[in-house]
Design goal:
- The protein is mainly alpha-helical.
- Helices cover about 65% and strands about 5% of the residues.
- The protein contains 23 helices and 5 strands.
- The strands form 2 sheets. It has a 3-stranded mixed β-sheet with strand order 3-5-4, with helices on both faces. The protein has a two-stranded antiparallel sheet with strand order 1-2.
- A hairpin with a 2-residue loop joins β1 (about 150) and β2 (about 155).
- The termini are far apart.
Length: about 575
């Protein structure tokens, strides 16, 4: 069956509620272990069904944000997902109080129960209206960014389609492209401010209703973080500032020399080479066919996975008007199907996103047979290890995508993954400041962003007055849609860098560790997973310093005369 044939229907919440209530009653009253397992199996089918319909709706509305049918269906989920969350909340409460909880923990593992305990702390019927409001605001942000129609180069472009102009070798083109993009955000500044202000207020309100001082701890628990807290993250940010930012400053100094620019500006930072950045040597069908060759060669497991994705048409990759920006991987449980969504625009980013999202998809494909839906994916920071590491496992095959330009791409990609970490840490630090001080005005938030930007990205200089006042973050959808998520990318990048280093020493051992990690799914917490994988803990003092030195050695091994 092709993805287009996957059947969507609006879930009947009354029927679903009745099934949850039946299951909850048995879990509360029965002390028969086998009966409870039977009930868990049945209710997990219901949970998978609801997730399948919600996911199909999400895929189809993001593929075409102007689709009236799916727009109404998305409104249904925005309105009803908090009500459904209450059913999950009551189910979790019954499981946590089960008379045979010890046996259930033994069968299903402790992580499921830890996740449920965290979920109990961040949900109550009294915040259902707040959750509905949050959903509506996130949908409003998504629709606003998808509405961009930017006149440039004789065409009407959305935000994704402006990407190639930001890496154009002509400096004037880059400068003007950045200015045109920011014109869209400047024209809608009041709207972006309003949406975010309401999001901060409603999230803070939820946290306070449930007894938290602010949204920070509440937000961590919402993300299922059971083995680290904001203090550990603050110490990690300090390591990045002290040990990794100097490496990125060196990367930027080398870039300025290569480009022949005395002082880099913000619109120069995406370009790495004077002759233009490496580009894929083919279009979407070509790239997919080359990816199929790569995954066939990498391992028998990746061959099976990627052939499945192609045969079932689970790759939605073309940029087009009305399509939501960005890229993601999701999972459709009833069809045991990962799904990859992206916006190809002819830049090297197409290969980035194809390998990155394929890492997510391969992981969930490898753990799709868990009995517990909560184990299909791990928590978000662990999820990103799979995606970012897959980008590095693609290194030996990059000639398939770039031909002779693979050498320059490897440098660009490695340097980019290092440079990204301080930016990701900046996003997290900004959100921490915002949610610890929820009464900040929009102007104070922008000033805070710019202050932190100067700490973590001291090389970022703006010509654009709108950007100078601290508005770049309007473009960072995670800040709006999933508060505190972004640090996960950086923690995972530190782990992925370790796979890069391991792969250069012993490729077979590195792959075995990675595939074993994928098969674990979400059955363990973040710190447990990195222990299983044999990776150094990013929170431990000295980890960033050690990895930074190894990465700088690799960067210095590139012949700069070939990086033109």
């Amino acid at each position: 069956m092709k993805f287009s044939e996957y059947k969507y229907e609006r879930p009947n919440l009354e029927e679903i509620t009745a099934k949850f209530q039946e299951a909850i009653e048995v879990l509360k009253t029965s002390d028969d272990f086998s009966k409870q397992v039977e009930v868990i199996n049945e209710i997990n089918k219901v949970r998978n069904y609801y997730a399948t319909m919600s996911t199909l709706c999400h895929i189809r509305i993001t593929t075409n944000t102007t689709d009236e049918f799916y727009e109404k269906e998305q409104e249904f989920f925005d309105e009803n997902s908090p009500i459904y969350a209450n059913l999950e909340f009551e189910l979790a409460k019954a499981l946590l109080n089960s008379k045979v909880k010890d046996k259930l923990e033994e069968k299903y593992g402790k992580q499921w129960f830890r996740l449920m305990e965290a979920s109990q702390k961040v949900f109550s019927k009294e915040i259902i209206e707040d959750l509905q409001e949050e959903n509506k605001l996130i949908s409003e942000y998504r629709k606003l960014t998808a509405s961009a129609k930017i006149e440039f180069d004789g065409k009407i472009n959305n935000l994704s389609q402006m990407g190639p102009y930001l890496v154009n070798p002509d400096r004037e083109v880059r400068k003007n492209a950045e200015a045109k993009i920011m014109e869209f955000f400047a024209e809608n500044e009041a709207k972006f401010d309003e949406i975010y202000d309401k999001l901060v207020k409603v999230r803070t309100q939820m946290a306070r209703k449930l007894g938290y001082k602010d949204y920070v701890e509440f937000g961590y628990l919402r993300l299922g973080r059971t083995d680290y807290d904001s203090k550990m993250v603050a110490n990690y940010r300090k390591q990045v500032l002290e040990d990794l930012v100097p490496v990125v400053i060196k990367i930027m100094e080398d870039k300025a020399k290569r480009l022949g620019i005395d002082e880099l500006r913000s619109y120069d930072l995406n370009l790495d080479f004077k002759s233009g950045d490496p580009k894929p040597i083919g279009d979407r069908p070509f790239l997919v066919s080359q990816a199929q060759k790569m995954y066939a060669s990498l391992s028998k497991e990746t061959k099976e996975f990627f052939d499945f994705m192609v045969e079932h048409e689970l790759l939605e990759l073309d940029a087009k008007q009305g399509k939501a920006g960005g890229g993601y991987c999701t999972y459709i449980p009833d069809y045991k199907s990962p799904f990859i969504f992206a916006n190809f625009n002819g830049t090297s980013g197409d290969v980035d996103v194809l390998t990155h999202e394929a890492g997510h998809a391969f992981q969930v494909f490898s753990s799709r047979n868990y009995e517990i839906p909560d184990y299909y994916f791990p928590t978000l920071e662990a999820c990103e290890i799979h995606s970012m590491s897959m980008e590095f496992f693609a290194y030996p095959y990059l000639e398939l995508f770039f031909g002779e330009d693979a050498y320059r791409y490897r440098y660009k990609h490695l340097a980019g993954t290092i440079s990204f970490i301080p930016y990701g840490v900046l996003v997290d630090h900004f959100q921490t400041e915002v949610y610890e001080n929820p009464d900040m005005t929009p102007d104070e938030r922008k000033a805070t962003w710019r202050k932190l930007e100067k700490m973590y990205q001291p090389y970022k200089v703006y010509d654009n007055a709108f950007l100078e006042k601290g508005t770049y973050w309007f473009r960072q959808s995670h800040i709006f849609s999933n508060a505190f998520y972004y640090i996960d990318y950086t923690l995972a990048q530190v782990c992925a860098h370790q796979y890069f280093i391991k792969n250069n020493v012993d490729a077979m051992s590195a792959w075995e560790s990675y595939y074993n990690l994928c098969k674990q799914g979400g059955s363990k917490s973040f710190l447990e997973l990195i222990k299983v994988a044999g990776l150094d803990n990013p929170f431990v003092d000295g980890t960033i310093k050690k990895i930074s030195k190894q990465l700088l050695d690799y960067l210095n091994s590139f012949d700069q005369t070939k990086l033109i």
